[in-house]
Amino acid sequence: MQQIEQTPVPAPCDAELIQTACRRAHEGTLSVDGCTPVAVGMVHLFESEAFMVVPDDAPVHELAERALDGVSAMLELADCAPISLRERVRSLIWLSGTVHSVPAPLERDLAVEIAGDHPDARLLDIGHGYCLLRLHLDNAVIATSQGAGSVNADTLAAASPDPFWEYEGQWISHLEADHQDLVYRLASKFPEHLQRGRVRPLGLDHFGITFRVETPSSDSDVRLPFDRPVSKVTELSAALHEL
Q1: Which residues 6+ apart lie within 8 Å of 58 measured at CB?
Q2: CB–CB of 211/222 below 8 Å?
Q3: pLDDT tens digit string along 1-55?
Q4: In what order do the strands lie in the sheet with 198-205?
Q5: Half-sphere exposure (CA, 13 Å, Cβ side) for 106?
Q6: 103 in Cβ contact with 64 (< 8 Å)
Q7: Which of 29, 64, 88, 178 is 20 to 30 A distant from 168 in Cα terms?
Q8: What are the phi and psi torsion angles at 176 (to 5°)?
């Protein structure tokens, strides 16, 4: 896949991309030696820890309860575009570290605390067939169409998710369904050779908006940067109009 950028401009760093992807992830896979990989529900990053929802009867849960020092593990998840594309995966992320159980008396209170920052209906299942596991992070790796990068736990802990992570999916879907006229106008800014394919909105963050151009033979991503980073919905609306 070809990645096209107009000019070198500020964009989310790898740590921010990972933070954002974890907030949006609907599922992941936790792998531990000696256990069948288990499907994970929501993933919440806090400092150098990743909390996740898993079934009570997952073998990794029992293993983590027995291991005082934790068990080496890797969590894999994907950040997918919110609309139907030929290739929906925007990035793949691997979080590695040691997995630990969360004491049962603390699970409900911790779930409530997480929900205040990262609302997710699956947290309501804690104590009803599901539990929390904690992955103490050593490092993270992210792979996108631009390449791969490694982020240590301290750098990841210092990063924040994109301020629009919770609404990006709705906005991209709305742009695709109801504002093709705006998409076409923005596409007029693309390099001429990329104005002949099907243009689809791919992603939105506080630095700019990215589109996917689909042709019969290839996919290309084009990023249109805002004049300056935005942090509020009113600023985002103004930045899109300025584009």
Answers
A1: 35, 38
A2: yes
A3: 544 444 455 689 999 999 999 999 988 999 998 889 999 989 999 999 999 999 9
A4: 2-5, 219-225, 208-214, 198-205
A5: 9
A6: no
A7: 29
A8: -65, -40
Give bridge partners of residue 52 from the DSSP assignment.
Answer: 43, 133
Cα Rg of the chain (Å, integer): 20
Determine contact, residues 96/138, Cβ cutoff 8 Å: yes
C-alpha 99/C-alpha 164 separation (Å) is 30
Cα–Cα dist 222/214, whole Å: 11
The three-point CA angle 68-129-50 to 5° equals 50
pLDDT tens profile 48-86: 999 999 999 999 999 999 988 899 999 999 999 999 999
3-state helix, strand, coil in the chain (%, to 5): 30, 35, 30
Instruction: Round to whole Å and give the CA distance between 226 and 237.
Output: 11
The helix/strand count (H/E) of the chain reads as: 7, 12
pLDDT at 87 over 90: yes
Cβ atoms of 56 and 130 closer than 8 Å:
yes
